[in-house]
């Protein structure tokens, strides 16, 4: 239960117990002093009463000795019994001691013989009573008949007074006359004498009691004053500490701890320093948390903005990669068409080669039939002209279709630009992911994967460009050779046919030359067929690469969609983090630090 009391109450109880203890000790000492004083009065009374008893006993014994001497004289015959008794009563009646001491004599039967010569003499007072109904004469006579006499206490009025006062009497019998001689004195006089004799002691006792009372009073006042000072020195700083702690518990850390409190050298000074240290530490901690919350809120807002921008860029990349996939698919389709055209060109070249073989045979026949060559030459001229036009048209169509390779190069350049842009976006995404820290690790992996795919696409495009350049070079060579061939057919052969017709008879000598020329043309056609076959292989590789590129860009688009989903998840997490930061900031705002 005492643990539930306040410190002020505990101190008050402690001080109250101390004061009550001192007061109890003082009262106990006063009681003991009063007991000692009463014991001394009692001892004084006993001494006075003892002296008084001895005195009245001696006085009575003196009277008995006097009567005994008279009785002895009576025995000797000097006095008669009557004379002796008369002398004895006269002497006793006149005898005094002290101021008011006198004697009386009663017979065993209660008849009074001597009593100051009063009217009581000669009367029987055996049944006399005091104011309390006490028959004191009977006891006086009875006690007096004891061997050594006896004492009797009763109440009896003083001379000239009506009010009874306490009196103590001593009586002793004188056996020869059967008298009981007695004397006594009022005990209130003894009390007054005892008080008078103990007056100095009483004065000393009262003085001592007064001094003790003053000392105790001063002690109690001083202790109470010191207790109040000590209590205030404890409760005031304790209340201040409680007030400070309550304010701090309410979140107010703007309070200032008084220097007088901190400069104390006692436990409360240590408590004040501890509270100040706790206040400063908590204030610093709350300040840092507030700053971190603000910074976290800004970072979350920045991440939200960046992730939103990244989502837009990923959507653009996804759309671009889809367009790129469509373009790559178109490129693959065009490559297939180019491959089919190359196949047709190859077939035409094979026809040309076969025809050159036939021309060689005919040249041999011309050589053998020189005389009949004119008609054959005319027919050959017509056939050659017709073939020239056909070959020219086929070559021009093939060359026109071969220009598709340039379009492939241009498309590869576009793909190269797209891959460069993808690399740039992947780099930006990696930078933003690094800024995001732990939350951007997943996005960083996706950005690295996009960069890796863009790098692979770039390498594939470079390979496509290299193959395209080779195909372009081959097509250029084919175009040059075809141009030369067409030019050759359109000019030289026609002129030769015209000349041959003019010099038909001289053609026989030139037949061998024509045969060799046709064989060379056949060889060139075979080389052209090989070149076209190589071009067809390159075009097929281009088509395959385009298909792979389309598949890769499709995968990129799919991964962009996955990245977009991850980015949206990151956006949700950052939004949640921002909300948590706002909530934490709201909670921290409970504390006042400035």
TrEMBL record:
Which InterPro entries has this protein been placed in?
HAMP_dom, MCPsignal_dom, sCache_2
Q: Which residues cross the membrane?
A: 12-30, 211-231
**Species lineage:** Bacteria, Bacillati, Bacillota, Clostridia, Lachnospirales
Broad class of the protein's primary localization: membrane
Per UniProt, residues of the HAMP domain are 232-287
The family assignment reads:
Belongs to the methyl-accepting chemotaxis (MCP) protein family.
**Localisation:** Cell membrane
> Ranges for the Methyl-accepting transducer domain?
306-557
Q: Which organism is it from?
A: Velocimicrobium porci
Q: What GO CC annotations are associated with the protein? A: plasma membrane
Going by the UniProt record, its keywords in alphabetical order are: Cell membrane, Membrane, Transducer, Transmembrane, Transmembrane helix
Name of the protein described by the UniProt record: Methyl-accepting chemotaxis protein
UniProt membrane topology term? Multi-pass membrane protein
Q: Which Pfam families does the UniProt record give?
A: MCPsignal (PF00015), sCache_2 (PF17200)
Q: Name one GO biological process term.
A: signal transduction
